[in-house]
Fold this sequence. Notes:
Blueprint: E1 4-11, E2 15-22, E3 27-30, E4 42-43, E5 46-49, E6 55-57, H1 58-64, E7 70-73, E8 85-88, E9 91-94, H2 95-111, E10 118-126, H3 131-137, H4 140-144, E11 151-155, H5 156-164, E12 175-182, E13 185-194, E14 200-208, H6 215-218, H7 222-237, E15 242-248, H8 259-264, E16 269-272, H9 276-286, H10 292-296, E17 297-300, E18 307-312, E19 320-324, E20 334-341, E21 346-353, E22 359-365, E23 377-385, E24 390-399, E25 410-416
Parallel strand pairs: 1-10, 10-11, 12-15, 14-17, 15-16
Antiparallel strand pairs: 1-2, 2-3, 2-4, 5-6, 5-7, 8-9, 12-13, 13-14, 18-19, 18-21, 20-23, 21-22, 23-24, 24-25
Helix pairs in contact: 5-9
Amino acid sequence: MAEAYYIGMDLCPESTQISFYNDIKREPETVNQLNNKETYMMPNILFYSNKTGDWYVGSEASEARFKEEGIILDELYANARSEELIEIGEKKYSYRQLFIMMLKMHIDSFLYRYEGAVVKKLVITIPDYSKDLYRVLGSLYKELNIDKSSISITSHLDSGLYYIFNQSPDLWVNSVALFDYNTDGLQYYRIDISRGRSPEVIQVSHEDYTKQFNMSMFSGDNILMDVTFSKIVEHEMKKTYISSVFLTGLGFSEKWMNKSRNILCQGRRVFAGQNIYTKGACYKAVGGEYEEFYKKYFVETEENVLFDVGLSSGEEEDEFIPIALGGRQWYNIKGKINIILDDTDIVTIIYKSRVTDQEIRESVKLHGIPKRPNKTSKFSVEVEFESPNKGAVIIKDLGFGKLFPTTNKIYRKEFEV
């Protein structure tokens, strides 16, 4: 029987990392490059050999470009949404096709190490949400020949939380700090846990330091970079007690921290790694016991929806009928239910806080629906989000079989909570 793997993929503009769940060690393990075991980062490039007609990906593409004639293709992440065609080996490809090909080859380069291995669940973590990129990645399941539900997309922050909260609990007795220093600059996240309330809440605050701290500012002056980072660390560490600090990103891969390291290590544990996000995505792929913290805690971040959307039952008990439940990134929340109205043409929408249970109600009158007997008016009610606090409720008349055909009327109620 083929072995099925839970895989976490950290997809960035310049490189990709892959982790798989090791059942024996019971933790994610990050994949080294076959020809360079010193790094996990696989370059996001393809190479086509004019001589053999073979395709190469990642570090193998980097090697092949210097050994034989062919075409090197980079900037695939930046052009992932483009349908512009390029001719390669007497065949035309869009950049979108090449991008998907690259991702498949990255995954296959791991699977080929284990005869007959397949993907059981793949979670892709990306630095920033883009609707077009999200749509492109959503089609990858076809190339991998797996169910659509076997692929999900999340953020660096979400996968970072999965990683942190699957470490030893003594690391997050108090607040936790996460510094992400990449080519765009420094991002800082502080994770605070509010205990003793129900539900217990994980609050994530975010500081964007990219203007004050980025690679282009220092021009290789490591001493100035160290001193500048020290001041940021001192400022943030004074705000609350931090149990542990996690450092990730290319900027931390070089050995430039001296003064700042001493400040970071004062009374707290510090961890540095380039594969935090890919391992966190792998934990999410496995699910089960590794998502328990999302069941125990309610997570508040700037990308998560903090309320549920549903309907009033319209009955004496006035029950809340959920459509879309919050607590996740807004772009990963959708919901749809069918309802049958009984002697009314009004639908009451409820927006319910997941922390305080406070409710906001709005009523939608369904104009233009012909008079029908009770319980013969069927509607679909769908919720979609365009940001953490904005979205729309879409109500569609479905009719009621052949007896009462649909009017095809659609009602859209936009909301901002």
